[in-house]
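Input record (one chain):
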Amino acid sequence: MIISSSNFAQNSTSNSGIISGKVIDSKTKKPLDYVNIILLSKKNIIANILSDDDGLFQLNNLKKDSNLSLKLNLVGYNNLKIVGINLLQKDSIYLQLNMESNGDLNEVIIIEKRTPTESKNVEKFAIQTYSLRNINSITNIKGPNFKR
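The corresponding structure, as predicted from the sequence alone:
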């Protein structure tokens, strides 16, 4: 896990801050989309978001706190927890977070499950056969009446 952070403003007097960053695969270095990201202050959940298609996330209007943590999880990857994030002296923190594949997702089996449906108000009809001599009389035959 590699974490890099930088601040865009120091010694801020603002009452709110921003935590943003990018989540990538530690081996392939490709961005990870739809990573569940939970921001905590002590044990209280402050925010919960998903990374976008490019692995990017941004948490805005955060109350200044010196003991924030992030929990990240994604199916097929080891959970990641970052502790000790300090927003008291900075307006903005950028994190590049590397998640490691746990190799558990080698095979996915999708099973379709359907519930039986009832048929209601279905009219019965008979199949009639005609010889080629009476082919002209077929135009007078009416088919079943299907109503919904």
